[in-house]
Amino acid sequence: MGCPGPTGRAPGRLLLLLLLAAGVRGAPRDAVICSQGLACRLLDADVLCGTEPAAPGPGLALLGLRLEPALRCAEPGGCSPCLRARLRLGLEPEDGAGDAGTAASPRRDVAALLLLSAHGFASSRCVAVEVRASSALPGRPLGSVRFRCFEAPLGSELHVAAYGSARGRRRLSQRRRLPDCSWPAARAAIPQCQVPRLQVSPGLTAVLVEVQVATVELNYTLRLYHNHSHGASGSGRVVTASGPMNYSVPLEEVLPCLCLQVGAGLGAAGTQQEVWPEIQDPLRATLCPFSHDAAAWERLWVQTQLVLHDVGQTFTCFVSTPCDLPAELVPCWSPAPAVPCQALPGLQQPVTGQGPQEFQALQPHPNLCVQVRSSGRVRLTQCLRDHGHPGVLPGHADDILVMEPGGNTSLCALQRGNCIPLASFAAVEAGRPGLLEQQLQEDVASGQCMQLWRPENGSGVTLWACPMHKYMRARWVLAWLGVLVCAACILLLLLLKKEDMKVWLKSLRTGRGSKAPLRGRRALLLHAAEPVAERAACALAAALRPMGMAVVAAPGGGSGVAAWGPLPWLHALHQKALRGGDTVVLLLSPAAEAAARRWEDAAGGVSRAGDASNGPSPPLDPGNEVEPCEAFAAALSCAIPVLSAGAGRYVVARLEPAVTSVPQVLRAAPAFVLPSEAVGFLQALAGRRGCRLEPHAAAVAERLRRALGE
Question: Which domain holds residue 461?
Answer without folding.
Answer: 310-469
